[in-house]
Specification:
The complex is a heterodimer of chains A (about 150) and B (about 150). Chain A has about 150 residues and is α+β, with helices and mostly antiparallel strands. Chain A contains 3 helices and 5 strands, in the order E-H-E-H-E-H-E-E. The longest helix of chain B has 16 residues. Classes of the chains: A alpha+beta (about 150), B alpha+beta (about 150). At the A-B interface, helix 3 and strand 5 of A face strand 1 of B.
């Protein structure tokens, strides 16, 4: 985050918004045998699928605008999350209904990476800093830019 | 883009903060109630974060089906429902503060074969947490935070 035009670490604020969506999925790799699918994916291989209440935390980093005092308009972020994530994924079957996940196993890692790619170009004020996706309260995945900004 | 996976585990254990290097009075002054000779206990929460490339065949950084039994064997079984000071050999030589517990858990999990251990965070209570990250400078650095957690 030390790049051109970006604020110094001490002036940067991180803003996080949370949304929840519920979706179904199962894990199956057509390149694996039935046995291998069961061995690698365990119960998650059940072809009837199962579901989770996913909790998504999206963090935007930036310097507050001196006039508005805001890094970004949270209403705008809410609308982006509604369009990009909720409409695509809420009450959907992730194996069949989300084109961005086609050909991928809909693991928490892959879903979070898809969400990062969907959101990054849409954030105009501040910068997408982290996508944290909880599959359950006990399991989550973090995606960040990977440039050491959060070290 | 960098992706990490975090899984939360729990164990309950007792400990006593006391060092023979200090006098009785000094132990009392430094550790306060935590120095009570009979010990006391906590419900510890351990967050284990691993990082690495997402395997396209499985969609995973690491299979939770491998991580769970590894953490279970290395940490949960030897720590759960134990008196840490006496039943975990490493705490015979060093005070069983949660800084040291966090560091010991990190040491035990570092050899996880399927992904790189990035961080261990231990909540001693919902108000106090301690974390250690891999390769921060020359050391694995321990950070302590006190106060209400967001989770």
């Amino acid at each position: 985050m030390e790049g051109a035009g970006l604020p110094g670490k001490d002036r940067m604020i991180r803003v996080t918004r949370k949304v929840e969506f519920s979706a179904a999925h199962f894990y199956h790799n057509p390149n694996f045998s039935a046995d291998e699918n069961r061995r690698v994916f365990g119960k998650c291989n059940n072809p009837h699928g199962h579901g989770h209440n996913y909790v998504l935390e999206v963090t935007i980093a930036g310097e507050p605008d001196p006039t508005t005092g805001m890094v970004l308009d949270l209403k705008e972020l809410k609308d982006i999350l509604e369009t990009e994530v909720m409409e695509r994924m809420d009450h959907r079957h992730l194996n069949y209904e989300v084109p961005e996940l086609t050909g991928q196993i809909p693991t928490c890692e892959n879903i979070a990476a898809v969400i990062w790619k969907l959101l990054e170009p849409k954030i105009k004020s501040g910068k997408l800093d982290r996508v944290r996706l909880y599959e359950s309260p006990e399991l989550f995945v973090d995606v960040n830019a990977g440039n050491g900004a959060r070290a | 883009m960098k992706i990490s996976l975090t899984k939360r585990y729990r164990f309950a254990a007792s400990h006593r903060l006391y060092t023979p290097r200090l006098s009785e009075a000094e132990n009392k002054r430094v550790y306060g109630k935590c120095s009570n000779a009979y010990g006391h206990g906590h419900n510890y929460v351990v967050e284990v974060t691993v990082t690495g490339p997402v395997d396209p065949e499985t969609g995973m950084i690491a299979n939770v089906g491998e991580l769970d039994p590894f953490v279970q064997r290395e940490v949960i079984e030897p720590f759960d429902q134990r008196f840490l000071n006496e039943e975990v050999p490493e705490f015979r030589e060093q005070v069983a503060t949660t800084e040291n517990v966090c560091r010991e858990i990190f040491r035990r999990l570092k050899s996880f074969p399927s992904a790189k251990l990035e961080r261990v965070r231990v909540e001693e209570t919902s108000k106090n947490s301690f974390e250690i990250e891999a390769d921060v400078g020359a050391f694995d650095e321990v950070r302590v935070s006190r106060g209400a957690t967001t989770q």
